């Protein structure tokens, strides 16, 4: 670990110890700590608990589909977004719907929002790589920038990663399946074969489609459709 990251690690361990979240270990085992730099330049800590996860109970419960979450946001005109600072260390048992009640609970449990990432009274708001507002949804172009800058893949893993990212926004691309057919065929054939004349064309066409801002209407559940 580099010296700057080691300094950050010691700082965070000290903070967690001071508030009683951690204590000196008596175990013979440990977990690797990694750091990833955020967009604002600060460091985000990640702990590799894969070995521990193999031993714990696998609780299974339904997770809502992202598309389902988007479909519920067609009616509201005003939005508020909160981002809990170190949210995984702050255990709020249940969410409340009204902002005033949320704030009261946060104060009661001494939880703190990261003000730089909070938004109040917005007519549109970024949400999971999308911009939502006015009953519409569109791609957040800041998030799809990596797709536009993607170099032509030379390995199956790189092609699969590209298609996985592009697939997240497929609802915005008319004829997505037809456009990507030459690329998905390459996954079956393997990248050991040279690209056909259709493959680079499909790659460029898909990237160009991502550049085109498409706005979709979210369903209004108060009306029949």
Automatic annotation (TrEMBL):
SUPFAM superfamilies: DNA/RNA polymerases (SSF56672)
InterPro entries, alphabetized: DNA/RNA_pol_sf (IPR043502), Retrovirus_Pol_polyprotein (IPR050951), Rev_trsase/Diguanyl_cyclase (IPR043128)
Domain of life assignment: Eukaryota
PANTHER family (UniProt xref): PROTEIN CBG26694, PROTEIN NYNRIN-LIKE
Record's protein name: Uncharacterized mitochondrial protein AtMg00860-like
Gene for this chain: LOC108661163
């Amino acid at each position: 670990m580099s010296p700057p990251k080691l300094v950050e690690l010691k700082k965070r361990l000290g903070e967690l110890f001071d508030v009683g979240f951690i204590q000196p270990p008596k175990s013979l085992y440990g977990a690797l700590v990694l750091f990833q730099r955020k967009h604002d330049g600060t460091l985000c800590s990640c702990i590799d608990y894969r070995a521990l996860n193999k031993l714990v109970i696998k609780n299974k419960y339904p997770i809502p589909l992202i598309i389902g979450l988007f479909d519920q946001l067609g009616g509201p005109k005003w939005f508020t977004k909160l981002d809990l600072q170190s949210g995984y260390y702050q255990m709020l048992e249940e969410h409340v719907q009204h902002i005033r009640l949320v704030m009261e609970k946060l104060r009661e449990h001494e939880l703190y929002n990261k003000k730089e990432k909070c938004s109040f009274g917005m007519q549109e708001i970024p949400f999971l790589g999308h911009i939502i507002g006015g009953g519409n949804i569109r791609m957040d172009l800041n998030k799809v920038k990596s797709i536009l800058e993607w170099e032509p893949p030379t390995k199956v893993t790189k092609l699969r990663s590209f298609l996985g990212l592009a697939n997240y926004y497929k609802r915005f691309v008319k004829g997505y399946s037809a456009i990507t057919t030459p690329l998905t065929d390459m996954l079956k054939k393997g990248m050991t074969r040279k690209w056909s004349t259709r493959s680079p064309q499909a790659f460029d066409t898909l990237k160009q489609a991502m550049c085109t801002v498409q706005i979709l209407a979210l369903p209004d559940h108060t009306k029949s459709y």
